[in-house]
């Protein structure tokens, strides 16, 4: 097989996930460049007659899906979904993920958890032995963020956390605001030896709305790279 560049690999993973979709399904649509490939390919299938109803995980994805005339719903109208397909910033062999690089982790986690199955699509560079090279996004309420930042650092004692507020891209250096009106801390914990323990500790901080550790949520990861497609977990 000829070498794949990362974007081709993302599209290949997305195309593989599309095989899991059939008419009548209610789908969660992820956020990010890999998920955007899936939405684009899904749009082609919808134009050819595929009948699906989709819940987007971000305004960005909603706009893309709307432009492609993909039928959309909200989680309030459609609270149970068959399948969510989304990207990830990192995954390990136990299907644990870091998500939120695109800023949509809260809706992504709500939508994925409301789905019978979550299937992750990535290029193979996202595989890690130990989570934590990618800074963990933590969505926080705007009230008392310095206090919250200190509590996160204490909660992650031993991880050597330094959390930085994510800024909008561009020159204004204003904090990035999520679709839900919150800030994000990008937390450098180093190697996350105990993801379950860290997840529990973060949830115990009152100002933390949600964090980007997805544990026990993904059923499978479709990872595409130079050697083709690898599937971690089960697709059925
Ligand atoms: O979690 C996410 C958005 O919040 C994305 O799925 C994650 O950042 C991966 O993005 P990409 O597919 O662009 O590499």
Automatic annotation (TrEMBL):
The keyword RNA-binding does not apply. GO terms for biological process: pentose-phosphate shunt, non-oxidative branch. It is an enzyme of class 5 (isomerase). Pathway: Carbohydrate degradation; pentose phosphate pathway; D-ribose 5-phosphate from D-ribulose 5-phosphate (non-oxidative stage): step 1/1. GO terms for molecular function: ribose-5-phosphate isomerase activity. SUPFAM superfamilies: D-ribose-5-phosphate isomerase (RpiA), lid domain, NagB/RpiA/CoA transferase-like. Homodimer. This is Ribose-5-phosphate isomerase A. It comes from Methylocapsa palsarum. The lineage of its organism: Bacteria, Pseudomonadati, Pseudomonadota, Alphaproteobacteria, Hyphomicrobiales.
């Amino acid at each position: 097989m000829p070498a794949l560049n990362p974007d081709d690999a993302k599209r290949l993973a997305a195309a593989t996930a599309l095989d899991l979709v059939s008419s009548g399904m209610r789908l969660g649509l992820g956020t990010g460049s890999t998920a955007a490939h899936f939405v684009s390919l899904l749009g082609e299938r919808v134009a050819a007659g595929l009948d699906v109803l989709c819940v987007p995980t971000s305004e960005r994805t909603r706009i893309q899906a709307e432009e492609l005339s993909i039928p959309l719903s909200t989680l309030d109208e459609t609270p149970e979904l068959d399948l969510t397909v989304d990207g990830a910033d990192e995954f390990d062999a136990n299907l644990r993920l870091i998500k939120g690089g695109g800023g949509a982790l809260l809706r992504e986690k709500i939508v994925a958890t409301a789905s019978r199955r979550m299937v992750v699509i990535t290029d193979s560079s996202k595989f890690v032995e130990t989570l934590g090279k990618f800074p963990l996004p933590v969505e926080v309420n705007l009230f008392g963020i310095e206090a919250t930042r200190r509590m996160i650092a204490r909660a992650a004692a031993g991880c050597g956390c330094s959390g930085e507020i994510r800024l909008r891209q561009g020159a204004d250096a204003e904090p990035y605001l999520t679709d839900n009106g919150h800030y994000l801390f990008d937390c450098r914990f180093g190697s996350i030896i105990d993801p379950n323990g860290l997840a529990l500790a973060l949830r115990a901080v009152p100002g933390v709305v949600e964090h980007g550790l997805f544990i026990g949520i993904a059923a499978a990861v479709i990872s595409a790279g130079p050697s083709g497609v690898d599937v971690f977990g089960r697709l059925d």
